[in-house]
C-alpha cells in the first residue's frame, strides 16, 4: 500500500524556483499495476524517483506499508530500497565494471542474503541470459542489459517494482519482449508495479492510470480514447 | 563486511589499470624508505659487532704529546688494581714517504701507524696474501695499503723510505681494525713496528704524532676503568675513550642519519600521495553513476565509501609490497656498489624486517590518508541522478570533510614526525612541504594566468593547448607540483654544485698558494725556503711563518670565566689544539674590528683573536686568556679582535696571533705557503727534492685536497641527483597516470575534432604543445625554486658568494618541457589511434 499526501517537488532553476510536481494525493493498493503517463517534462520520472526515495519531496508525505519514507534518513531509505523496491531504468544503469550475474548479486549482497550466487543464476536463467551471465554490460545489447536490470530489480523479491520508461531506449520488438517479461513478473509474483511510459498501448494494460501534464494530475489524457 | 570485500575485489578488476601508476609512486617511496633504513641498519649491526675492533682495544688512551710519567702512573695503578690486563703502545704520524730507489721522484703523504706485537686486541688485520703476524714488521718491515703501491709504482719486496730509514714492504693490507670509517684521511695507511719509530727520526719536535695506549681489561670492570681514566685525565691533554662510547656515538649518528634519510623516501611518498589524492578525485567523478546505482539498490553511503576505501587499501598494500620488493633488489645490489669501501667493514646487507614493516605501514597510511578526503565525495552522490542529470549539489560548508581533512593533516604530521624520530623535524618537514606546495601552486597559477593571452593565438593548436590547461578536471596543478618539485631538486643541487666548485676554483686562483710545507725545523727554515724558491721559478719566494701549538686552559674575562682545562673542555670547540703564530704586523687579509693592534715596543704578552671565536664565547678586549704551549703556561691579554678574509689565505688564517716575544726560547716550527709550479712533473720533483733533503718536512698539496673535495662534492651531488631523479620519476608516473585518467575526455574531444576535419598531425601538435607548455611552466617553477634554494644555501649555510647559472636554468626549463611533452604524448598515443565513429557511438 502506497499513500501520497500533498506530494510536490520544486527545484532551483537558474535562481528562481521551478515546480516540477504540484501537490498530489494518490494511493496505490498492494498488487496494483499503475501506469504514469504524460508528455516529456510532465514530472513522471520525478514522481517515480520520489516513490523510490531516490529524492525527497519539497512538501507532503509518502507512506509505504505504514512507514512515512519522507521522515527516513539516507541510510534507512537505502535499506528500504534494497529490500522492498526494485527499480528498472530507461538507461539500464548497470555497474559497468561488474558482469551481468554480479550486477544481479549486488542487491542481495548488500542486504547480506545467503545464497546470492545461486539465486542470481536462477534470475539470469529466468530472463534467458544464462550464456551471457559472465559478460560485462558493454558486451551486451540494450535489450540484454535491460533484462539484466530486471533480474537485478527482482533480486530481493521486492513488494514494489518501479520502472521508468523501461522500453524507451529499445527498438519496438525488443521493447515488447521486455514489457512481456515485466508483465509476467507482476503476474507470477503479485507485486505492486508502477510504470512510467508514454506508450498508450502499454498504459492501457494497467489497472489504473495517473496522467500528468506540467506537473499536475489531469483526469483525461489528451487524445485518450 | 562480505559485500564490501567482494565488491572491492570486483571493482579492482577494472580499476587497477587506471590506478596502477599512482601505486607505483607509493612503491617507489616505500622502496626508498625500506632500502635506506635497511642499509643503515645493516651497517649499524656490523658496527655494533665491531666496536671493539674499531679501536682494537677496550679503552684507547691518546695524546698529541708523548705520555708523561703521571699518565703512565695512572695506568700502572689501574693495572695493579686488576682493571687493566694488558697494555700496548701505538703511534700515529702523518708523514711523507717515497721509494728508496733514487731514480723516482714520486712522494706520498701517508698515515703511519707503529704498533707493538700484541696489536690488535680485537678485530683482525687481514692482508691480501697470507696472514698478519707482527713478525712481518719486525726488523724494518712494513705493510701498506694497495693504493700506495699503485701511486708510487711499487710492489711487495721493494724498499720504502720512511723518514730517515729504509723499510721493506712485506705485505698489502686489505682490512685494518681501528681505521675510522669515512673519516677524512691525509693518506693511505702504512704500518711499521713500534720499535722502529725512533730510527725514522720522525718524533722530533713539532711532528704531528698521536701517541696511543691500547688497554685491554677484564670485561667486568671495564666501565669502572673508563670512568676512572676520565676523572684522572680530566685536566690533562689526554683523551680516553671506551669502545662503548664509540658504540653510543656511532649509534646515535646512524639513527639520526637513518631517520633523516628516510625522510627523503617520505617526500617521494607524499608526492605519490598527492598523485593518489588527485587520481581518487577523478576516479570518484568517473564512478558517480556506479555509486548512484549501488545506492539505488540499497547501499548506504558508508558502505559504498568502504567499498572504495577497501580498493585504496588493497592497492596501497600492493604498492607497499612492490616497494619492499624493490628495496630488496636495491639492497642486494648494494655490495657491488660499495666496492673498495667494503674492505673497511664487513657488513651483511639484507632487508631489515623492521624497515620493511615501517615502509609498509607508511605506504598504507599515505595511500589511505591522501585518498580519504576525495573519497568523501561519495557521500554526496544522490541516487536521483540516475533519473535526472542535474544532480543538485548541496551547498554550504561540509564540516565532516573539513574535519576529516584536518585529521588527515595531523596524521601526516604524525607520520613525518614518526619517520624523522622528532616532532620538531616532522613539523618542519610538513611545514616546508606545505610551503613549497603553496609556492609551486601559486607560481603555477600565475604562470598559467600569464600565458592566457595565448588563447587568442593565431595557431589553432596553441589555442587549444592553452585552453586545455584550464579546462574542468585538468591535472595542471598536480603535474606542476610533481614535475616542478623534481625539477626543483635536480636544478637546485646542480646550481649549488656549480657555485661550490666555482668557489674552489676561485680559491685556487692564479696567485693563491697551492702547496703548504709544514713541520719545518728552525734550522731548516732558510734552506727549505731556498729550495722551494728555486723550484717555483719567478714566483715570489715563500715566507716561512713560525707556528706553535697551543691550548686554551683558562679564560678570565668580563663575561666568561673558565678556571682550568677541565672547564674549557666542557666548552667543546675551545678545547682543541690551535695552531698559533706571532708577528709584528697585521696581514693584508686581516682587519681589526675591536681593540688596537700592538704598537712596536709595547709591553706585556698580548694576543689578537679572530671574531669567529666570539660567536660562541663572549670573550672581549682586555680579557685574559691562559694558553698551554708545550707545557708552559702563558697568560696573554686580548688586545684586539680581527676579522680574517678566509678566502684570501696567502698568509694563512690564524685564530690567535701573538705579539712577538711571548714565545722567546720556546721551540717552534715553521710553515711555508707556496705557489707551486703549474706543471705536475715539476711539482712532483719539488716534493721529492724537499722530502729527500728534509725527511721531516711534509708537503700538503692543496691541488690533491681540492680534487678530493671535488670528488666528495660530486658524490654528494650524484646522491641528491638520484633523489631528484626519483622525484622526477614519480612526477612522470603521476603525469602518465593523470593523462590516462583523463584520456576518456581527450578521446571524445579528438573524435569530435576528427569528425570536424582535424587530421592526426594537428591533434599530435595540439598534444605536444599542451604538454610542452605545461612542462615549460613546471620547469620554470622548478628553476625559480632552484635559484632561490641555491642562493639561500650559498648565502646562509655555506657563506659563499652566489652567482647565477643561466645555462643550467635554461637547460632545465627546456629539458623539463621536452620531458613532459614526450611523456604526455606517449601516454596519449591511444587518443590518436582511436577511430572517431566507435568513440562517438560509445558516448
Q: Would you give an account of this structure?
A:
The complex is a heterodimer of chains A (225) and B (843). Chain A is 34% helix and 27% strand. The longest helix of chain A is centred in the C-terminal third of the chain and has 18 residues. In chain A, helix 4 packs across helix 5. Chain A contains seven helices and ten strands. Chain A is α/β, with parallel strands linked by helices and 225 residues long. Chain A is globular, with a radius of gyration of 17 Å. In chain A, the strands form two sheets. In chain A, strands 6-7-8-3-9-10 form a six-stranded mixed beta sheet. Chain A has a four-stranded antiparallel beta sheet with strand order 2-1-4-5, with helices on one face. The C terminus of chain A is likely disordered. Chain A has one domain: Rossmann fold (3-Layer(aba) Sandwich), CATH 3.40.50. Chain B has 843 residues and is α+β, with helices and mostly antiparallel strands. Chain B has four domains: 208 residues, no CATH class; 196 residues, no CATH class; 229 residues, no CATH class; 134 residues, no CATH class. Chain B contains 23 helices and 21 strands. Chain B has a six-stranded mixed barrel with strand order 2-3-8-5-7-6. A six-stranded mixed β-barrel of chain B has the order 12-14-19-16-18-17. In chain B, strand 17 and strand 18 form a beta hairpin. The interface between A and B is medium-sized, with 36 and 31 residues.
Amino acid at each position: 500500500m502506497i499513500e501520497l499526501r500533498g506530494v510536490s517537488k520544486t527545484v532551483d532553476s537558474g535562481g528562481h524556483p521551478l515546480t516540477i510536481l504540484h501537490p498530489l494525493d494518490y494511493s496505490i493498493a498492494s498488487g496494483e499495476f499503475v501506469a504514469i503517463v504524460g508528455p516529456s517534462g510532465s514530472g513522471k520520472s520525478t514522481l517515480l524517483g520520489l516513490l523510490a526515495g531516490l529524492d525527497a519531496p519539497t512538501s507532503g508525505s509518502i507512506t509505504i506499508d505504514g512507514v512515512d519514507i519522507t521522515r527516513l534518513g539516507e541510510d534507512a531509505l537505502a535499506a528500504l530500497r534494497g529490500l522492498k523496491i526494485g527499480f528498472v531504468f530507461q538507461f539500464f544503469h548497470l555497474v559497468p565494471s561488474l558482469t551481468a550475474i554480479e550486477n544481479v548479486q549486488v542487491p542481495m549482497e548488500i542486504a547480506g542474503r545467503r545464497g546470492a550466487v545461486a539465486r542470481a543464476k536462477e534470475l539470469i536463467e529466468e530472463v534467458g541470459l544464462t550464456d551471457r551471465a559472465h559478460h560485462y554490460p558493454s558486451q551486451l545489447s540494450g535489450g540484454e542489459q535491460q533484462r539484466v536490470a530486471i533480474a537485478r530489480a527482482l533480486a530481493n523479491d521486492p513488494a514494489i517494482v518501479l520502472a521508468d520508461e523501461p522500453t524507451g531506449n529499445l527498438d519496438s520488438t525488443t521493447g515488447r519482449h521486455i514489457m512481456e517479461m515485466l508483465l509476467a513478473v507482476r503476474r507470477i509474483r503479485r507485486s505492486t508495479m508502477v510504470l512510467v511510459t508514454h506508450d498508450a498501448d502499454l498504459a492501457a494494460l494497467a489497472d489504473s492510470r495517473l496522467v500528468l501534464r506540467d506537473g499536475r494530475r489531469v483526469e483525461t489524457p489528451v487524445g485518450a480514447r | 563486511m562480505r559485500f564490501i570485500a567482494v565488491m572491492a575485489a570486483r571493482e579492482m578488476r577494472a580499476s587497477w589499470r587506471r590506478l596502477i601508476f599512482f601505486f607505483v609512486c607509493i612503491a617507489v617511496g616505500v622502496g626508498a624508505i625500506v632500502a635506506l633504513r635497511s642499509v643503515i641498519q645493516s651497517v649499524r649491526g656490523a658496527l655494533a659487532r665491531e666496536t671493539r675492533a674499531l679501536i682494537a682495544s677496550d679503552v684507547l688512551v691518546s695524546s698529541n704529546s708523548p705520555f708523561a710519567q703521571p699518565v703512565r702512573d695512572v695506568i700502572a695503578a689501574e693495572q695493579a688494581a686488576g682493571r687493566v690486563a694488558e697494555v700496548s703502545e701505538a703511534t700515529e704520524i702523518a708523514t711523507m714517504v717515497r721509494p728508496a730507489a733514487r731514480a723516482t721522484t714520486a712522494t706520498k703523504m701517508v698515515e703511519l701507524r707503529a704498533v707493538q706485537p700484541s696489536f690488535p686486541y680485537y678485530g683482525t688485520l687481514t692482508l691480501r696474501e697470507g696472514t698478519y703476524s707482527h713478525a712481518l714488521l719486525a726488523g724494518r718491515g712494513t705493510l701498506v695499503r694497495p693504493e700506495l703501491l699503485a701511486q708510487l709504482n711499487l710492489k711487495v719486496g721493494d724498499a720504502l723510505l720512511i723518514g730517515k730509514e729504509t723499510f721493506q714492504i712485506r705485505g698489502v693490507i686489505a682490512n685494518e681494525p681501528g681505521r675510522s670509517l669515512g673519516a677524512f684521511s691525509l693518506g693511505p695507511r702504512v704500518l711499521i713496528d713500534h720499535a722502529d719509530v725512533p730510527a725514522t727520526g720522525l718524533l722530533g719536535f713539532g711532528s704531528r704524532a698521536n701517541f696511543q695506549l691500547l688497554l685491554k681489561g677484564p670485561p667486568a670492570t671495564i666501565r669502572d676503568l673508563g670512568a676512572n681514566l676520565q676523572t684522572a685525565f680530566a685536566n690533562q691533554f689526554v683523551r680516553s675513550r671506551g669502545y662503548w662510547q664509540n658504540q653510543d656515538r656511532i649509534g646515535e649518528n646512524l639513527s639520526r642519519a637513518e631517520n633523516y634519510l628516510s625522510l627523503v623516501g617520505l617526500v617521494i611518498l607524499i608526492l605519490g600521495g598527492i598523485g593518489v589524492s588527485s587520481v581518487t578525485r577523478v576516479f570518484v567523478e568517473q564512478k558517480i553513476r556506479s555509486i548512484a546505482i549501488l545506492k539505488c539498490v540499497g547501499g548506504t553511503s558508508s558502505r559504498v565509501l568502504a567499498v572504495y576505501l577497501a580498493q585504496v587499501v588493497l592497492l596501497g598494500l600492493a604498492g607497499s609490497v612492490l616497494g619492499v620488493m624493490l628495496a630488496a633488489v636495491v639492497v642486494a645490489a648494494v655490495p657491488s656498489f660499495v666496492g673498495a669501501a667494503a674492505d673497511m667493514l664487513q657488513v651483511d646487507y639484507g632487508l631489515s624486517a623492521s624497515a620493511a614493516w615501517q615502509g609498509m605501514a607508511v605506504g598504507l597510511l599515505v595511500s589511505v590518508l591522501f585518498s580519504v578526503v576525495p573519497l568523501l565525495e561519495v557521500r554526496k552522490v544522490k541516487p536521483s541522478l540516475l533519473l535526472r542529470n542535474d544532480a543538485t549539489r548541496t551547498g554550504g560548508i561540509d564540516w565532516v570533510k573539513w574535519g576529516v581533512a584536518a585529521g588527515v593533516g595531523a596524521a601526516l604530521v604524525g607520520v613525518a614526525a614518526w619517520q624523522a624520530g622528532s616532532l620538531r623535524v616532522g613539523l618542519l618537514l610538513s611545514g616546508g612541504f606545505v610551503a613549497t606546495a603553496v609556492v609551486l601552486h601559486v607560481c603555477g597559477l600565475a604562470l598559467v594566468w600569464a600565458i592566457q593571452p595565448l588563447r587568442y593565438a593565431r595557431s589553432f593548436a596553441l589555442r587549444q593547448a592553452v585552453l586545455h590547461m584550464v579546462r574542468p578536471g585538468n591535472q595542471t596543478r598536480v603535474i606542476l607540483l610533481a614535475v616542478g618539485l623534481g625539477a626543483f631538486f635536480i636544478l637546485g643541487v646542480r646550481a649549488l654544485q656549480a657555485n661550490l666548485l666555482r668557489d674552489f676554483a676561485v680559491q685556487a686562483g692564479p696567485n693563491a698558494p697551492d702547496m703548504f710545507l709544514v713541520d719545518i725545523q728552525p734550522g731548516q727554515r732558510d734552506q727549505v725556503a731556498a729550495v722551494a724558491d728555486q723550484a717555483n721559478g719567478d714566483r715570489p719566494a715563500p715566507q716561512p711563518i713560525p707556528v706553535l701549538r697551543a691550548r686554551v686552559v683558562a679564560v678570565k674575562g668580563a663575561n666568561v670565566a673558565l678556571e682550568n682545562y677541565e672547564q674549557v673542555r666542557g666548552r667543546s670547540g675551545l678545547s682543541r689544539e690551535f695552531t698559533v703564530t706571532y708577528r709584528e704586523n697585521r696581514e693584508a687579509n686581516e682587519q681589526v674590528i675591536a681593540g688596537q693592534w700592538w704598537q712596536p715596543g709595547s709591553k706585556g704578552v698580548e694576543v689578537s683573536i679572530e671574531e669567529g671565536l666570539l660567536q660562541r664565547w663572549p670573550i672581549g678586549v682586555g680579557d685574559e686568556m691562559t694558553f698551554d704551549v708545550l707545557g708552559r703556561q702563558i697568560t696573554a691579554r686580548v688586545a684586539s679582535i680581527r676579522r680574517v678574509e678566509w678566502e684570501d689565505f696567502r698568509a694563512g688564517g690564524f685564530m690567535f696571533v701573538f705579539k712577538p716575544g711571548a714565545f722567546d726560547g720556546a721551540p717552534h716550527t715553521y710553515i711555508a705557503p707556496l705557489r707551486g709550479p703549474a706543471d705536475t712533473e715539476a711539482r712532483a720533483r719539488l716534493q721529492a727534492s724537499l722530502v729527500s733533503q728534509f725527511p721531516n718536512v711534509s708537503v700538503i698539496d692543496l691541488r690533491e685536497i681540492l680534487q678530493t673535495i671535488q670528488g666528495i662534492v660530486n658524490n654528494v651531488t650524484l646522491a641528491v641527483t638520484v633523489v631528484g631523479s626519483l622525484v622526477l620519476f614519480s612526477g612522470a608516473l603521476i603525469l602518465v597516470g593523470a593523462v590516462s585518467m583523463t584520456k576518456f575526455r581527450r578521446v571524445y574531444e579528438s573524435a569530435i575534432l576528427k569528425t570536424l576535419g582535424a587530421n592526426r598531425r594537428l591533434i599530435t601538435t595540439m598534444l605536444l604543445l599542451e604538454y610542452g607548455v605545461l612542462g615549460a611552466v613546471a620547469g620554470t617553477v622548478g628553476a625559480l625554486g632552484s635559484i632561490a634554494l641555491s642562493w639561500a644555501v650559498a648565502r646562509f649555510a655555506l657563506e659563499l658568494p652566489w652567482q647565477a647559472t643561466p645555462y643550467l636554468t635554461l637547460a632545465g626549463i627546456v629539458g623539463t618541457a621536452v620531458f613532459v611533452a614526450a611523456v604526455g604524448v606517449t601516454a596519449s598515443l591511444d587518443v590518436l589511434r582511436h577511430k572517431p565513429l566507435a568513440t562517438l557511438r560509445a558516448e
